[in-house]
Design goal:
heterodimer; A: 133 residues; mainly alpha; B: 144 residues; alpha/beta; 5-stranded parallel sheet; 6 helices; 5 strands; 47% helix; elongated
């Protein structure tokens, strides 16, 4: 589907998507302990696993986002990784909603609205990734 | 695009990301904890609190919506983003020698630790603790 896009639009899409994940990953990598709290709020993983996710996921986002921005070798694989992460997060959000858990709890500063806004944000990202592929 | 090169790129990216992740775990000053019991060095359990001769002053560091939905009886809300509006009530309720226990929702919640640190640093309160297990631990002990 990417080949049907005008080149300028395609470049802007890559920069936008890659940049969004790069910035998101950088913010998480800045304070992994705080991100661990956000991961743990979903109550889906053993505590030790939340530490591993809090360390690894931000750097996966940063590196994949940077590769997508550059658009050279491996950018499709990087985009697939980001798509996979987005799907995983949507599954986690759906699981939290189904169990009546609000993982916001101060991590995003908002109340009940943050769960739906997070879902909407990730669906938009997933659509962009689908277009980019 | 053939599958093999794409898979190779994917595996390389996954492997490369592990490097800085491991370094972060070793060197980052805010590295995550691997054990919930050590996540909060200044934490206290409900069992310990039950043995105190002086009941604690409870402080709820969760968002306002969570506090409104339910909280430890007598707990006062205190969030960093609403500090100026809420701190006075907390300080007025405090008495010398009475321990303060701050709680939030998660096993690794940072909000209660930040609130506890601010109470110690800015107001000189010396007996400020963070509830181990947070609100979830209270609920487990006192199911609604």
């Amino acid at each position: 589907m990417a080949r049907a896009l005008p080149p300028v639009i395609f470049v802007l899409l890559r920069i936008g998507l890659g940049g969004a994940f790069l910035v998101a990953g950088a913010l998480k990598a800045w304070d992994p302990a705080a991100f661990q709290g956000a991961v743990d709020a979903f109550r889906m993983l053993p505590f030790a696993a939340t530490a591993a996710v809090a360390l690894y996921l931000p750097w996966l986002e940063i590196i994949s986002g940077a590769i997508v921005i550059v658009g050279r070798q491996g950018w499709r694989a990087a985009l697939a990784i980001l798509g996979g992460l987005t799907v995983l997060f949507l599954v986690a959000l759906a699981s939290a909603w189904a169990r009546g858990i609000n993982p916001a709890c101060g991590c995003f500063g908002a109340g009940t609205g943050s769960l739906s806004s997070a879902v909407l944000r990730d669906l938009v990202l997933l659509a962009g990734i689908g277009i980019g592929c | 695009m053939s599958i093999a090169p794409g898979l190779r790129h994917l595996l390389v990216i996954l492997a490369v990301a592990a490097g800085p992740a491991i370094l972060s775990g070793v060197l980052h000053p805010h590295a995550p904890s691997w054990r919930a019991e050590t996540a909060q060095a200044d934490s206290v359990t409900l069992d310990t609190i039950a043995g105190w001769t002086t009941p604690p002053q409870w402080v709820d560091a969760r968002p306002a919506a969570a506090y409104q939905a339910g909280h430890v009886p007598g707990a006062q809300p205190l969030q960093l983003e609403s500090w100026d509006a809420q701190i006075q009530a907390v300080i007025e309720a405090w008495r010398p020698g009475r321990p303060v226990v701050v709680y939030c929702d998660q096993r690794a919640c940072q909000e209660s630790r930040h609130v506890a640190a601010a109470l110690r640093r800015d107001y000189g309160l010396d007996q400020v603790w963070v509830l181990h297990g947070g609100w979830a631990a209270w609920l487990a002990r006192s199911p609604r």
